[in-house]
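Format notes (please read before filing issues)

Several people have asked whether sequences and structure tokens are stored in separate files. They are not. Every record keeps both together, in the order shown below: the sequence lines, then the token lines. Line labels are part of the format and must not be stripped during preprocessing.
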Amino acid sequence: MSQQLPELSKEQWAFLAVLGAFGGPVQIEVVGTIVPLLPGPLFDLFGKAEPQGWIRKVEDDRLVIGQDLPSAVQKKMDSVNTRKYLSWIVDKIVSERMRIKIGSLEWLYLLEKAGRSREAAEAEIALAHDASNEGRQNEAQNFLNKAVTRLMTLCDEAEVRPLFLSATLNLSNISFAVGYGFKNIEKFLLKAQEVAEGLGDRRAHALLSLHIGRLYYFTDRRDDALVALSLGLEEIEELGDDDILLQSALFLGLFYFIKGHFIEAVKHFEKAEQFFET
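Then the structure lines:
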């Protein structure tokens, strides 16, 4: 039997829809700033929606949309939450300086629904950074993988390219830290190298050559690994940059290890250890 919907005003439906746009708990103040409701209509909405399970209170000042909403309710909310409207909500939150009042996952959910792909990728990179700092490397890899996937489709945009390069390098590092997902990153590294070449970013291009070499070595492509690592080494030596030499110590150690130059390899591995410690 279909559930009869209570009578709600246009503003009350909008309040309910905006609450659902975050996909998780959000402060009443935030929703109220986007869809102002007087106390009377607001309490009337609570009185009608809470018993139905459409709204649930989380703490005193936070609400979350209910799960398993009737299809008619979800359809009504979706008719309000057009991509254009949700994008306006994003801009409203930023202009009203309310971003700090919204959880990171809820913000990401809104950006995804609004079609704000670049900003969603930036949010995922921030979430990956936090997860990595807290030792949740698997979560960090997952967020970075999603971010890089988004950014790769946006590389025609000039402001996206440097972000794509740095996120790809981070994803490569964390994939080797957790010990899986190697084959998945090959397409990202090759695309990033193409982007770096187009930008004339020699540092990024050199680092990417080394990352590709490491990937090839650990996926049993030894000859390809030597070629990529050799290319990266030549590029780094041409740059003559102490900082990039230090960043590349691990890869250079791998290069000399593959070639059987173990004493030279150990020197670079020791430099890499010092770099990671600092």
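For reference, the curators noted about this record: The two ends are 64 Å apart (CA to CA). The chain has a mean pLDDT of 90.
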